[in-house]
Write a structure and sequence with these properties.
- With about 170 residues, this protein is of the alpha+beta class.
- The protein has 5 helices and 11 strands; from the N terminus they run E-E-E-E-E-E-H-H-H-H-H-E-E-E-E-E.
- Helix 2 crosses helix 5.
Amino acid sequence: MFIEFGYGETFILKNGQTLTGELLELKDNQYTIKIGNEKKRISKEEVISITDDHALSTQTSTGKYGSPQSTFETWRNAAIDGNIKAMVSCYVSYQQKRMKKKLKKISRKKRKEMSEVTRQTDFSLTEPLFQGDRATMQVTWRMGLQTDVQPLQFALEDGKWKLIDS
């Protein structure tokens, strides 16, 4: 497998080290990175995450899908309003048909209850971790004494961050 790149990237390694350079290639499970005038090879297994400059520039985009956080807020507001169409629009295109079916199967009464629960829930979002055109963000949901933490996955699709239903 050979993949060619050409952006500036930040690599976070399992040993805690952070490297910033240009990813030149991924070949035989080895990244080749240009740091200054030197090339360095790193095993794919050593890397926790890679954030590229392109992804960083998209995290500051505007609009309702301009960042993973704004996409989540768009979804949350649609859930509070009970707006299935707007909720479905928050998902990647290849999952929208399935999500629409899934949400329409829920009775109106249950959707109204879900809307009220969403309204009463306090959501805390972490900063997303970007890996190219993908992002992961932890969401902590609090309602009364109940707390749950859930990782949410996002994909950059046509310049918009969309949820991936796992």
